Amino acid sequence: MNTDVITHVAEAPVSFLRPALWKAPEYSGSQADLDAKAAMLAQRLAQIAATHVKPRFATSLAAEDMVLTDLIVKANLPIAVFTLETGRLPQATLDLLEQVEAHYAAAYAGRDLKIDRFAPRAEDVGNYVSSYGANAFYDSVEHRKLCCQIRKVEPLARALTGADAWLTGQRQEQAVTRANLSFAERDDARGGIAKYNPLLDWTEAEVWAYLRRHGVPVNALYAQGYASIGCDPCTRAIKQGEDARAGRWWWESAEKKECGLHEANLNGAKAAVQA
Ligand code: SF4
Hints:
single chain, alpha/beta, 6-stranded mixed beta sheet, 6 strands
């Protein structure tokens, strides 16, 4: 037996055995550039609010969504904010939901943030669990998409009932499925209403620089190596250098990683609308 090898491994530093996890990036640009980009983003949001009667913003409380939330509240824009409470969210996300409302209530009395929660229908969840099992999303893309349909897509349709536009925090550099995002799209899956991605041209470093500069609350899981956060059983920490969405549905190929909320990202079926 070659004991030299065993001795070498036993004495190896912990950092050698454990790969470094993802960390929120540092920003190397100027403060003036960041402020200018934030001002342009605020203009985009104001333009959307002025163009539509009932615009709604879907937040998952991701870092990107917190940038948009902060600007919407500070400008007191008439954009309703909602989230999809899937029933499988991490406790850290549920905690942040309460924390965010308390944060803005304390900081901006009179324009408190109220995030409406939309949950899946209990009957649909019950049927899925009894037919396939609670964690059948690991078995196949088909079962994963059905779970997302029940817990996300159907509640989203209810959340957008009566809306004439919705907003997301998607960015182009997040994933191969998002590289061709437009600022404005027509969402044919939801009756042809407008869909906006106002943060499309922001980098991850710019997002984190904004959050730090403005003291915006963020999900505690980011500090544990999570670069993108969704439902608890479908999200995990990633290593430094991995694709930002590598921790989402990691058992599937990158080209399939959308949950049905942004299905047009997969088939490229986008149609520009008047911005
Ligand atoms: S992310 Fe996972 S748990 Fe959440 S709805 Fe989709 S398949 Fe279900």
